[in-house]
Amino acid sequence: MKYCKYCGKEINASAVVCPYCGCQIEEMQPAESGGMGIAAIIFGALGGWLGLLFGIIGLSTYKTEKNRKNCKIGIGLFIGWIILWIIIFANT
Fold this sequence. Notes:
It contains 3 helices and 2 strands, in the order ββααα. By secondary structure, the protein is mostly helical. Strands 1-2 form a two-stranded antiparallel sheet. The model has no long low-confidence stretch (mean pLDDT 86).
């Protein structure tokens, strides 16, 4: 438990806003959009270099695990396409 710095009442340790006085206790984090991760998946599935690019940019900027996972999937799909092309051209 912790105490509100404005009204002094005891509040939940994970509270962002005091339920008694309504004051903001901690700075709220803005929500992340998942656009870069989704683009990485789409372009990675199509075998394009943009899947790799969006995936790398997304990994370096996103903080939530869901968005980072989408970027990793996009990079993985791109690598899968590269391996497929290597196998195809190695057999010709």
